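Hi U.,

Before I forget, here's the chain from the pilot set. I'm dumping it here mostly so it's searchable later in email.
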Amino acid sequence: MSAGHHHQLYLPGDSVVHRLPPQCKLLAVFAFALVVVATPRESFWAFAAYAVLLAGVAAAARVPALYVLRRMAIEVPFVLFAFLIPVIGMGERTTVLGLSLSVPGLWAAWNILAKATLGVVASILLAATTEPRAILMGAQRLRLPSLLVQIAMFMLRYLDVIVDEMRRMRVARESRGFEARNFRQIPVLARSAGALFIRSYERGERVHLAMLSRGYAGSMPIIHDMTASVRQWGLALALPAIALAVLGLTW
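Structure:
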């Protein structure tokens, strides 16, 4: 069920992080995120230590800093929301660069920015060192519901197919002189969406019948051995373990 090409977020490599089984990296990132969320917002040095840990992981994985920074654009909505909190927040006020800002709002903004940024960077490193299908197989190894994992696999596999179908339908409309300029074109777009849904549904039925004819019995076969050794588990869980030790020093 491979998509046949590398995902945009995946950065091919042969580092020690790349070679770790996906279930180890998934659990490590999840545990690291829990530690970050549990860290008091006043512990500035702890957040700095977490950032250093992630920088060490990026260096070990040979993921360039610019690569990570470019993909942190996904965090922009959180940043905008965080900047609004001190402005509209209540409680004690303080003046920063001529602006009257809420002190509790500033703390809340810092809390969101610090923890969201660390979580996003950890997720980017996971995606950069693990192919999407491997992440889903790792989730299956961690005993996540098999049905949800398989749905995600098919979504990943056929997303490009559906997007390409949408592109062909758009080209067909434009070749007949259609231009979506105002609300009067909504019925045409709605019919196109309906046609796309029907085509996707029919394709899903054909794929399901093809799978049944090839012996599908409710679970996808695992071609590659994804078992993890004690050493690999220890190496992956070193990140949340060190972060937890840092958190312990804050209490």
